[in-house]
Amino acid sequence: MTTTKHKITSEVMIEKDACSETNREGSNSAVSKFFFVLPDYMRRSHSHSSSSSSSNKNGQSSTTSLAVDEDGDLVLDRKPATEAAITIEHSIATELKLVGLQIWRGALLLADYVLSHPELFRDRRVLELGSGVGLDGIVASCLASEVCCTDIDCGTGILELIERNFKRNSELVRAKVSVCELDFLNTDWSPKLRSKLDKIDVIMAADVIYDDEITAGFVATLARLLDETPARAAYVALEKRYVFTLADLDSVAPMYEEFRRCIRRQKRDWQVTELSLDFPQYFAYQRLKQLVLLKIEKKTR
């Protein structure tokens, strides 16, 4: 994470090969392609959908036009059929409260997990909390039957941004998609959101642990969802960020530790498991030891 004049830039934008073909749109926004290796089970369907025209459950269609050079010769796409890309509109640098407008390593870790475990997401109804720019929701929509992406609309137009990013990637989307506002600090949920929550099977979130108040709200929201909806498990990806403190005379990860304290304060009958990260890596990023993927589930009685 790079900080400049009170603004923060994700390491993903600095790492070589994490994304490519970034086109800036204004001083602080961009559209980037995040390439990933297609799992074997996706290669045949992706090759078919990319050949000419495709449609998804939203009724959106995508047509691939044939390009010719100045001599009239056909320009062939040389990209291997084993690779695809997700196109994302995002910010380059933001204040801390707007970090959801960027892509962070936790999102790429969660995307890898979804692609590595299709049996957990295929034909399921998935709720994403703190969707940000929608990358993980798009990945889940490759497998799920329904995806509901949520975030807080604090005047940045983030909900519309998520919708635009889904449209940019319509050739990958097979799920029915909805975008709803959900504020971790507001317990008054809209009728539209409630209608979606009544049907969810799986909850997921990435990179939502960066502020103590928001963390407490996130855990309280998670507790309510696991109590009131059919979902039995949530997958939460994040990166531990260490700082050296004089009080501890050691490097500690205060945001992560507060997250675990918030979980304990709920006193719910949950099983919290830190999952192994030995699953395949499809996206290009540094899979650091500080990255964490937790499964939080209601215990079976």
Automatic annotation (TrEMBL):
<protein>
    <recommendedName>
        <fullName>Methyltransferase-like protein 22</fullName>
    </recommendedName>
</protein>
<dbReference type="InterPro" id="IPR019410">
    <property type="entry name" value="Methyltransf_16"/>
</dbReference>
<dbReference type="Pfam" id="PF10294">
    <property type="entry name" value="Methyltransf_16"/>
</dbReference>
<dbReference type="InterPro" id="IPR038899">
    <property type="entry name" value="METTL22"/>
</dbReference>
<feature type="compositionally biased region" description="Low complexity">
    <location>
        <begin position="48"/>
        <end position="65"/>
    </location>
</feature>
<feature type="region of interest" description="Disordered">
    <location>
        <begin position="46"/>
        <end position="65"/>
    </location>
</feature>
<dbReference type="InterPro" id="IPR029063">
    <property type="entry name" value="SAM-dependent_MTases_sf"/>
</dbReference>
